[in-house]
Amino acid sequence: MSTIPQFAYGPKIDLSGVRDLYEGDHQVVPYTPPETGIDNLGIRSVDEFRVPALGDEPIVVEFRGWVRVVRSQPTTDDWKTTEVYTNLVQMCMKGECDELGEVTVRLQPEILSTGCINTPYDGDDLESDTPDKACRMAVACEFDVPRLGKKLVNKEPVELTIDEVRSIPPAGNPGRGQIYRRLPLYDRADPNGKPVAFLTSLNFSMGVYLPQSQVEELATA
Fold first, then answer.
1. Is 213 buried (19+), middle (13-18) or exposed (0-12) by CB count in 10 A?
2. Closest Cα partner for 41 from 221, 220, 214, 208?
3. What is the tally of structural domains in the chain?
4. pTM, rounded to two decimals
C-alpha cells in the first residue's frame, strides 16, 4: 500500500482518469499546451556529495532511471499565457561509485513533490507569442545507501529547474538543481540528528518517453 503524502510543496493534482503516457502514446509539439497526462520519462542525473565520515573529498555519482510526472490541464490554450502544474508521482534512479557503492534514489512518500511550468517575468522574449518557458520542481528525495546502512533524506527541497522550455513535457532538456553551497541530508532513522551527508551539486537531463515494459520493470526495482 502506498503512503499518502502528509505535506505538499504545492498544489496536488487529481490523478483520477488521467492517462499514463509511454513511448509512442504522445507526440510532443513545440509551443503547444498539451492536455493533462502522466509522463513516464527517462532521466539522468550527476550528483556531487560530501560525506564527512568518509573525508573531505567530493563524491560524484551518475544516476539513471525513470520519473512519473502528472501534468495538470493547461490554464489556457495559449502558449504565452498558459501555466501547467506538475506532481512528481514516482521516481527511481540508480547509481554507483567506489566510495558509496550502489545508491538508489526514490521519493519521500510523506511529502508530495510539486512544480510548475510557466513564462518567467524576466525573459528576453516576452514580446514573442512563443516565449521560452521555465520549469521548476521542488523534490523530496530519499537516497538509499546500503554501504552506510542508512537512507538519507533532505528536509529542504531539492529544487530542479529547466530553462528554455519550448515544449511540454520538456523531454531532452538539460536542467540543474538550485543548491546554495550544500544541502543537508539526514538519516531517516534520526531526522533530528546532525546531517550525515551534503548534496553539493546536481545536473540532470530529462529523457524521452519510455516503453511501458521498461517502466514496469523500473517501478518494481
1. exposed
2. 208
3. 1
4. 0.93
